[in-house]
UniProtKB/TrEMBL annotation:
Belongs to the TRM112 family. One of its GO terms (molecular function) is protein heterodimerization activity. This is Trm112p-domain-containing protein. It comes from the Eukaryota. It holds the Pfam family Trm112p. GO terms for biological process: rRNA (guanine-N7)-methylation; tRNA methylation. SUPFAM superfamilies: Trm112p-like. InterPro entries: Trm112, Trm112-like.
Length: 139
């Protein structure tokens, strides 16, 4: 499960849908793995506005990953100032873009748990896949 995926998940219980504590889910006892992939600047540029930056910063703190800046980077922070067109083949990605790619796309949770901050329910992660099926008494 990629770190980016965590930014879009919340507790599956109906009782937690209205609570702000149900997002983000908190990773516990996780095993991280770096899965090398080619950098895709266009993807990072397009997904960045959809990322809940405060939740991502909190997850990085909980996982012991490098601290993120308090302000979300803009598109101009992702490419060298000489060429701001991410579609151009000679566009050089900045270190910020490389760092975001490494964090959001290459860093994966292979084993562990995701815990709801509202109800405390734990969702198991095995082999990189989170199990969000709830027992019948919790639905």
């Amino acid at each position: 499960m990629k770190i980016l995926t965590l930014n879009f998940l919340m507790c599956a219980r109906k009782a937690c849908k209205s609570s702000s504590d149900a997002f983000p889910l908190h990773p516990r006892d996780v095993e991280l793995e770096i899965v090398e992939t080619d950098i895709n600047p266009l993807f990072i540029r397009n997904i960045l506005p959809r990322v809940e930056w405060a939740a991502l910063r909190a997850m990085c703190n909980e996982l012991g990953l490098p601290q993120l800046s308090e302000t979300q980077p803009s598109c101009t922070d992702l490419f060298s100032t000489e060429n701001l067109d991410p579609d151009a083949t000679d566009s050089e990605p900045t270190q910020t873009l490389r760092d975001l790619h490494n964090l959001l796309v290459q860093t994966c949770i292979m084993e562990g748990k995701l815990v709801c901050g509202n109800c405390g329910h734990e969702y198991a992660i095995k082999e990189g896949i989170a199990n969000f099926l709830l027992p019948s008494h919790m639905v």
